[in-house]
Design goal:
The complex is a heterodimer of chains A (499) and B (227). With 499 residues, chain A is an alpha+beta fold. Helices cover 58% and strands 11% of the residues of chain A. Chain A has helices spanning 3-30, 36-54, 56-73, 86-135, 139-154, 180-189, 232-299, 304-335, 348-361, 382-399, 432-435, 449-462; strands at residues 158-160, 205-210, 218-223, 344-346, 367-371, 378-380, 405-411, 415-421, 466-471, 477-484. Chain B has 227 residues and is an alpha/beta fold. Chain B is 41% helix and 22% strand. Chain B is built from 8 helices and 12 strands. In chain B, strands 2-1-3-4-5 form a 5-stranded parallel β-sheet, sandwiched between helices. In chain B, helix 2 runs parallel beside helix 3 and helix 6 (155-166) crosses helix 8 (190-204). The longest helix of chain B is centred in the middle third of the chain and has 15 residues, at 109-123. The chains are: A alpha+beta (499), B alpha/beta (227).
C-alpha cells in the first residue's frame, strides 16, 4: 500500500477517535450533574459532526467507539465493558442505533448538498459555453471558445477538428498520452471511448465525438478523473453535454457558411451569364455584318464602288469587335484579385487629345474638346483612363444621334472633372445608375452599353473617383466622371521652370 | 517605298497572320522569309543578314523579347514587334530591349506599312532635317520653322524635339527620352515630359489639344508623326 493510502486509513481511524475523546471529556465534565442519557447525547453529537465532516465510514466508526467509550467510562460498573443493569444496556443499544441512523441521514444530506452544488456548477459551465458559442462566428473562433470553456471545466483538454480529407488535426506536441488512433476511430465511428464508456476503459483520456447531422464534426479529448469531485460517469455525461453544444454550434456555423457560399455562387453564376450574354450580343452584330459582307463579296461580281463599301464595313465592324475584345480583356484584368494601377503623373488633356486624334485618323470628326489649359497633372493609370474616355466616346457616337460630341474638363480643389456630352435622344426615364451596372441587358439596353460602361465605372472607382450620367439640358445625354487630384504637382528643377 | 529586294524575316506562330503579312509585304516588294518559333528565327538570322525583322512577342517557345535581344546583338536592322496584348509594360520592355517600334494586334495593313516605312527610314540617310506640312526642323542649325517663321524654343525643348525628330515616325519610350534629353538619373521623372510636351505643342501645333505632330502613345512614350 502506498504512503498516502496508509495515511488515509490512519486519518479515518484517528479522526473518529479524537472526536470520541472530545465527547468523553465533555461527558466527564457533565458527570454527576447530568444523567447518563445526557452524556450519551455528547457522543451522538460527535457522530453527527463526524458524519457531516468526514462521511459515512468515519461516523460509523465514531458510533461504535462512542458506545464503547460510554460503556467503559460512565456505565456502572465503570472502567469495565460489562453492564450491570438492563436499563443501561438499552441506553447503549439506543445510542448505537440512533448514531448509525443519524450518521446515515447526515451523510446523505451532505452528499446531496455536494451533488446539488456540482450540478449547479455544471449547469453554469454549460450555460457559459452556450453564451460564448452563441456570440462566436467562424470555426476558429468557435474552436477557441470551446477550448477555453473545456479547460475551465475539466482543467485540461483538446479540441480536434478534421481537415478537408476527414483527417483530424495533430494535437500540439505537449499533449502527453494522446492517442491519435483512438481519436480518429472516435471521429470515424462517432462513438465515445475511455473510462465508463464501455469502449477502451483503460485509456487515460476520454475521446468524445462532436455530434453532427450526419457524421461527427470533431473530437474532444479530455483526461479522465481530473475533476476533484463526482464520479467518472457524471464527468463523462457532462463532457458529452459539452460535446453536444460544441457540435451544434459547429453545425450552425457550417450551415450559415454554406448558405453564404450558395448565395455567392448563385450571384457569381448570374453575373457570368449576364456577362456572356452581353459579350455574345456585342459580338454577334458586327460578326453578322462581316459575314454578310464577306460572303457577298466572294459570291457576286459587284461594281467597284459597292465592293469598296462592303470592304469598309468589314473593317469597321472588325474594329468594333476589337473594342469589345479589349473590354473583355480589361474586365478580366480588373476582376483579378490584385489590380494594381500603374500610376504616373499624367495630363488628362493629353489623354483626351490622344483619343480624339485616333478617332480623327479614322475619319471621325464629330468630337470637340474644351480643355482647361491650366489643368494640373495628376497621378493616374493613363492606359485605363484612356479606355474610360474611349468607351464613353464610342457610347456617345453610337447613341448620340449623329450630332457633335463635346468633351470638356476642368479642375476643382480636390478633383478633376471630365464630361462627355451628346445631343442624342438622352437617357429618357432610364435610371442613370443602372447604366453602369455590370452587363445589365434590361429594357432599354443599348448596343455595347453593358460592358463598356461597367468597365468605365470599375476603372474610375479604382482610382477613387466617381462616374454618373444625366439628361443634358437642351437635349442629349451627359456622362461625367471625376478623378481625385494627387496633391501638389511635382517640381521641375533646373533653369527652365514651367511657364 | 524602298522595299524592293529587301530581306525581311517574319517571326510569327499564327498561320493566318503569317499568311496575311507575307502576302501583303511580298506584294510591296519585300523578299519575305518566315519563322514559326523563336529558335527557328534565331537559327535563320545566324545564316543570313536580314534588312528588317518583324517579331511577334507571344511566341510558343521563347519570349519574343529574348528574340529581339538576340537579333539586336548581331544586327542593326530595324525590328518591328507585334503585340497581341494591350500590356503596355511588355511593349516598353521590348522597345527598351532594342526594338524600333510596335504594332498592336489586331492591326490594319495601312498601319503596318506606315511603321515599316518609318523603321526603314532610320537605316537610310542620316537625318539632318525633318519636314512635315507646315513644320520644319533643321537639326544641324538647331532651328525650328512653323509656316516659314522661326519658332523660339528653349534648349531643352529643342533637345526633346530633336530627339523625337531623329526617330521621326517611330515611338520613343519615356525612359529613352528622359535619359537622352535630361540624363540617366531622370528616367523616373515622367512629369517633365508631360510639361515639356505641353509647351512644345503650344508652340508648334495648330490645335494643341488634339496634336497633329507630337503624338502620345499612352503608357509607352511619344512619336513625332512622319506622314
Amino acid at each position: 500500500m502506498s504512503d498516502t493510502g496508509t495515511l488515509a486509513v490512519l486519518k479515518s481511524v484517528l479522526r473518529p477517535a479524537v472526536l470520541v475523546a472530545l465527547a468523553t471529556l465533555a461527558a466527564w465534565g457533565m458527570d454527576g450533574a447530568s444523567s447518563l442519557a445526557s452524556q450519551a447525547m455528547a457522543y451522538l453529537l460527535a457522530v453527527v459532526f463526524s458524519a457531516f465532516r468526514h462521511g459515512r465510514r468515519d461516523s460509523i466508526l465514531a458510533a461504535f467507539l462512542g458506545v464503547a467509550a460510554l460503556n467503559f467510562f460512565f456505565v456502572p460498573p465503570r472502567h469495565t465493558f460489562s453492564v450491570e443493569n438492563s436499563d443501561y444496556g438499552f441506553t447503549l443499544l439506543a445510542l448505537l442505533v440512533v448514531s448509525i441512523v443519524v450518521s446515515g441521514l447526515a451523510t446523505r444530506l451532505k452528499e446531496e448538498t455536494v451533488q446539488a452544488r456540482r450540478r449547479e456548477r455544471r449547469a453554469r459551465e454549460l450555460h457559459a459555453l452556450a453564451d460564448m458559442l452563441a456570440a462566436a462566428e467562424g470555426e476558429p473562433v468557435l474552436a477557441a471558445c470551446s477550448l477555453e470553456a473545456l479547460r475551465g471545466a475539466f482543467g485540461s483538454g483538446m479540441l480536434l477538428l478534421p481537415d478537408a480529407q476527414g483527417r483530424l488535426s495533430e494535437p500540439a506536441p505537449e499533449a502527453v498520452a494522446f492517442d491519435g488512433k483512438a481519436a480518429q476511430w472516435v471521429f470515424d465511428q462517432a462513438c465515445a471511448v475511455g473510462p465508463a464508456t464501455g469502449y477502451w476503459p483503460e485509456l487515460p483520456r476520454w475521446y468524445v465525438p462532436l455530434p453532427g447531422d450526419v457524421k461527427s464534426l470533431g473530437v474532444l479529448a479530455v483526461p479522465a478523473g481530473l475533476r476533484d469531485s463526482g464520479t467518472l460517469a457524471e464527468d463523462l455525461e457532462h463532457l458529452q453535454a459539452f460535446a453536444r453544444q460544441v457540435g451544434l454550434a459547429l453545425q450552425r456555423d457550417q450551415l450559415s457558411r454554406r448558405a453564404r457560399e450558395a448565395t455567392l455562387a448563385a450571384r457569381t453564376e448570374a453575373l457570368r451569364n449576364a456577362l456572356l450574354a452581353s459579350i455574345s450580343h456585342d459580338m454577334r452584330t458586327p460578326l453578322a455584318a462581316i459575314l454578310g459582307a464577306a460572303s457577298t463579296l466572294s459570291s457576286q461580281t459587284l461594281p467597284a464602288a459597292e465592293q469598296k463599301q462592303l470592304l469598309h464595313s468589314i473593317e469597321d465592324e472588325a474594329r468594333r469587335m476589337t473594342a469589345t475584345a479589349e473590354n473583355v480583356l480589361q474586365l478580366a484584368r480588373l476582376s483579378a484579385d490584385h489590380v494594381s494601377l500603374r500610376r504616373d503623373w499624367e495630363s488628362i488633356g493629353e489623354i483626351i487629345g490622344t483619343v480624339i486624334g485616333r478617332q480623327r485618323r479614322r475619319g471621325e470628326h464629330r468630337i470637340a474638346a474644351r480643355i482647361d489649359e491650366n489643368l494640373p497633372l495628376t497621378r493616374i493609370d493613363a492606359v485605363l483612363v484612356e479606355q474610360v474616355l474611349s468607351n464613353l466616346i464610342e457610347n456617345a457616337l453610337a447613341h448620340g444621334g449623329g450630332g457633335e460630341i463635346e468633351i470638356s474638363t476642368h479642375a476643382l480643389d480636390d478633383r478633376i472633372v471630365v464630361t462627355v456630352a451628346d445631343r442624342g435622344p438622352g437617357l429618357g426615364d432610364l435610371d442613370p445608375a443602372q447604366l453602369f451596372v455590370r452587363f445589365q441587358p434590361g429594357p432599354g439596353a443599348r448596343r455595347g452599353t453593358g460592358l463598356g460602361l461597367a468597365i468605365c465605372k470599375a476603372i474610375v472607382e479604382l482610382h477613387g473617383g466617381t462616374i454618373g450620367a444625366a439628361n443634358r439640358p437642351g437635349g442629349g445625354a451627359v456622362f461625367e466622371f471625376t478623378l481625385p487630384r494627387a496633391g501638389d504637382e511635382p517640381m521641375v528643377d533646373g533653369a527652365e521652370g514651367r511657364k | 517605298m524602298s522595299a524592293t529586294g529587301r530581306d525581311l524575316l517574319i517571326v510569327e506562330d499564327d498561320a493566318e497572320i503569317r499568311l496575311f503579312l507575307k502576302t501583303a509585304l511580298a506584294a510591296d516588294g519585300f523578299s519575305v522569309s518566315t519563322a514559326v518559333t523563336g529558335r527557328e528565327a534565331q537559327a535563320m538570322a545566324g545564316h543570313r543578314d536580314y534588312d528588317l525583322f518583324i517579331v511577334d512577342l507571344g511566341l510558343p517557345d521563347v519570349d519574343g523579347i529574348e528574340v529581339v535581344r538576340a537579333f539586336r546583338e548581331r544586327s542593326q536592322a530595324p525590328i518591328l514587334i507585334l503585340s497581341a496584348q494591350t500590356d503596355e509594360a511588355r511593349k516598353v520592355e521590348a522597345l527598351d530591349a532594342g526594338a524600333d517600334d510596335y504594332v498592336t494586334k489586331p492591326f490594319g495593313v495601312g498601319e503596318l506599312r506606315a511603321r515599316l516605312r518609318a523603321a526603314l527610314r532610320r537605316t537610310g540617310e542620316a537625318a539632318t532635317n525633318f519636314e512635315l506640312e507646315a513644320l520644319s526642323i533643321e537639326l544641324d542649325r538647331r532651328r525650328v520653322l512653323r509656316g516659314g517663321g522661326e519658332v523660339h524654343l528653349t534648349p531643352i525643348e529643342f533637345n526633346l524635339l530633336a530627339r523625337l525628330a531623329r526617330s521621326a515616325g517611330r515611338v520613343v519610350t519615356h525612359r529613352q527620352l528622359l535619359s537622352d534629353v535630361w540624363g540617366p538619373e531622370y528616367v523616373e521623372h515622367t512629369h517633365y515630359l508631360r510639361i515639356y510636351m505641353g509647351q512644345l505643342r503650344a508652340k508648334l501645333e495648330n490645335d494643341p489639344a488634339v496634336p497633329r505632330f507630337l503624338l502620345t502613345e499612352t503608357g509607352v512614350g511619344y512619336r513625332l508623326a512622319a506622314e
